[in-house]
Design a protein that fits this description.
669 residues, FAD/NAD(P)-binding domain, Flavocytochrome C3, Chain A, domain 1, five-stranded mixed beta sheet, 17 helices, 14% strand, disordered N terminus, binds flavin-adenine dinucleotide
């Protein structure tokens, strides 16, 4: 059992083992090695043995500990409800007016679990394998295995809460298939899975709020992290209704604040999703893992105008039955889709990937859509679209069955485009959707700042360089219901924390910094709106650090982002005051952070000269145009350290080792 001692989280600190500086593309200025503290022993036993070795907190002592949780989406609400139920004093913060408005509510397609209810060859090991392969071998084996293990409990937990998963005629839970796999392991509630799961977590949270175990702070935005002697001890937050800036002290801080796809301005994320909480923590010392790993989802409604502010997802579940095609001939792109005969259509995914067909992983489907559109075979305005066609499915399953499975998605599509997709094919195009990057965390989900944990999409996640569909809800709920409620108490049981209050100099300094930043944004007397700068940043990122990236495009972006940032701070116009509800001020603060994060994303993308998953460097592709990894040089997690506003960030590496899965070129043929 000696290996179990590896679970002692207080040993988790950034190992500052400086390796001689090797400048690589001008990005990193030092190289340090990170230890993820993955327990040794057989992979099937790592998590159980680790849990067994965890220290517990006596029930009578739990109420003495105050836990601050920022975020009440799936990860945050699940963690708050569970830790509240265990008896801790939980304070949960959200900038939304209710936990039900978290972006998680938008998730459509489903949640994976290795239940093997279909008896189609699924197992924990297969889900583990699919996740590591889907992530193009840039995820940790230990974490991915644990995620697959826990997945089976998540479904039981949610069913017990009353989540109305789809069921078959006999009453058994239904499943469907998602990209990158050949089994049907995705549980769903029509096209509203996130909504139903969030309502389940919300009910559990409300129960703890009513019991007095959780104090909810809605409409409160965390704007800084407070660390004392290098240990997280609290946050500074702004009451969005009154503008009051207040400090909150705790024994531990959890960030479950979602992803940062809105750096691209146009994305499928909720408009308010942002990076501020994790970026502020990064500036206070938490390393940022794989910032350039972003996911571009293949099935979104194409952009239709310059002033559009949001993109809408059409769930991946549609690829179960919808067939993707473009006309074989460029001249046919203006013809009505239904007039193009079968023999003149190119079902390019089925042609190129016969084993997986339309259900290849997202990165592969997105790149192929871009490729056929770049060839001039895209359909719709600007040629930025491919067809997703249900004609064959309606013929095979009947209209009523298709309506029952996907009805609300067809309705969303019709409301936005005016087209009835039962009659004409949908038009879809890739769009920014999910971020695999985030705060670097060890096996316990603790960041490099002791006492600061990150869960859900906010951490750099178990997904590697590409997330498989329906695995984000799985990860958020795994973190929230199962992992954090075990690892946070273990930390509390071991930590020796002095009593502090908000009069401590570190809180005073952080509050002053928050006020200084707010006032600086209000003082600027320029002409540009926050949105106009954000839109420009988004376009810059999409063009240069989007679906395809090259050394040239990344250097171009790295030249322009600092200029845009400077222009923002000089010329942005934020109306109103800080002592009132001021959404333009809120937005300005978030865009200021996106302007810094964008630079780190490009730095990371530039240094990683290989392609992997969603990170496609045009210089590194196979003869067939697939992502070509460079395992000899890049088989690691890149975790970046903030060194100051005008200094290059420092690169730390967590080497990835593969003992169970053979590193291989991914193939979905
Ligand atoms: C349209 C769409 C459909 C999707 N469908 C699926 C699907 O079918 N299956 C799947 O597995 N995944 C899906 N995903 C991905 C999945 O929904 C997300 O990854 C997941 O819901 C993220 O949950 P979370 O708890 O980490 O964060 P979120 O749900 O984004 O919650 C973040 C929380 O943090 C709070 N917050 C953030 N910053 C601050 C701050 N500074 N101060 C205070 N509070 C803050 C917010 O108020 C919110 O409560 C989809 C994503 C999109 C965009």
């Amino acid at each position: 059992m000696g290996a179990l001692n590896e679970c002692n989280m207080l040993d988790t600190k950034v190992e500052k083992r400086a390796i001689p500086a090797v400048e690589q593309n001008g990005a990193p200025n030092e190289r340090n090695v990170l230890d993820a503290k993955i327990p040794s022993g057989p992979i099937e036993q790592k998590w159980d043995r680790c849990r067994f070795d965890m220290k517990l907190v006596n029930p009578a002592n739990r109420r003495k500990h105050k836990i601050l949780i920022v975020g009440s989406g799936l990860a945050g609400a699940a963690a708050a409800a569970t830790l509240g139920e265990q008896g801790y004093q939980v304070h949960c913060f959200s900038f939304h007016d209710t936990p039900r408005r978290a972006h998680s509510i938008a998730a459509q397609g489903g949640i994976n679990a290795a239940k093997n209810y279909r008896n189609d060859g699924d197992s924990i090991y297969r889900l583990f394998l699919d996740t590591v392969k889907g992530g193009d071998f840039r995820a940790r084996e230990g974490n991915s295995y644990r995620l697959a293990q826990v997945s089976v409990h998540i479904i039981d937990q949610c069913v017990a809460q009353g989540v109305p998963f789809a069921r078959d005629y006999g009453g058994l839970l239904e499943t469907r298939s998602f990209g990158g796999v050949q089994v049907e392991r995705t549980f769903y509630a029509r096209g509203q899975t996130g909504q139903q799961l969030l309502l389940g977590a919300y009910q559990a949270l409300e129960q703890q709020i009513a019991a007095g175990a959780v104090t909810m702070h809605p409409r409160t935005e965390m704007l800084d992290l407070v660390a004392i002697d290098g240990v997280a001890r609290g946050i500074v937050a702004r009451d969005l209704r009154t503008g009051a800036v207040r400090s909150h002290v705790g024994d531990v801080v959890l960030l479950c604040t979602g992803g940062y796809s809105n750096v691209f301005y146009l994305s499928t994320n909720a408009k308010a999703s942002n990076c501020t909480a994790i970026w502020r923590a990064h500036r206070r010392g938490a390393l940022f893992g794989n910032p350039c790993f972003t996911q571009i989802h293949p099935t979104c409604i194409p952009q239709s105008g310059e002033y559009q502010s949001k993109l809408v997802l059409m769930s991946e579940s549609l690829r179960n039955d919808g067939r993707i095609w473009v006309p074989k001939k460029k001249e046919d792109t203006r013809r009505r889709a239904n007039d193009i005969p079968e023999s003149e259509r190119d079902y390019y995914l089925e042609r190129r990937y016969p084993s997986f067909g339309n259900l290849v992983p997202r990165d592969v489907a997105s790149r192929n859509a871009k490729e056929v559109c770049d060839e001039g075979r895209g359909v719709g305005p600007g040629g930025h679209g491919v067809y997703l066609d249900f004609r064959e499915a309606i013929g095979r399953l009947g209209l009523d069955n298709v309506r029952e499975k996907y009805g609300n998605l067809f309705e969303i599509y019709e409301r936005i485009t005016g087209d009835n997709a039962y009659d004409v094919p949908m038009r879809i195009y890739p769009a920014p959707h999910y971020t695999m990057g985030g705060l670097w965390v060890d096996y316990h989900l603790m960041t490099t700042i002791p006492g600061l944990f990150a869960g859900g999409e906010a951490n750099f996640s178990d997904q590697g360089a590409n997330r498989l569909g329906a695995s984000a809800l799985m990860q958020g709920l795994s973190d929230g219901y199962f992992i954090l409620p075990a690892t946070v108490p273990n930390y509390l049981a071991r930590a020796k924390l002095e009593r502090v209050d908000t009069s401590h100099a570190a809180f005073r300094e952080a509050e002053a910094e928050v006020r200084r930043r707010t006032q600086a944004l209000l003082k600027s007397d320029g002409r540009r709106t926050v949105d106009s700068v954000h839109r420009e940043l988004g376009r810059l990122m999409w063009d240069n650090c989007g679906m395809a990236r090259s050394e040239e495009s990344l250097r171009r972006a790295l030249g322009k982002i600092p200029e845009l940032r400077e222009e923002f701070h000089k010329t942005v116009r934020v109306l109103g005051t800080e002592e009132e509800l001021n959404q333009s001020l809120e937005k300005a603060g978030r865009v200021a952070d996106f302007l810094e994060l964008a630079e780190l994303m490009c730095t990371d993308a530039l240094h990683r000269t290989e392609s992997c998953g969603g990170h496609f460097r045009v210089e590194s592709q196979t003869p067939e145009g697939e992502a070509k990894r460079d395992d000899a040089n890049f088989c690691y997690v890149a975790a970046w350290e903030w060194k100051g506003a005008d200094r290059a960030p420092a690169l730390h590496k967590e080497p990835l080792t593969f003992e169970h899965i053979l590193l291989a070129q991914r193939s979905y043929k």
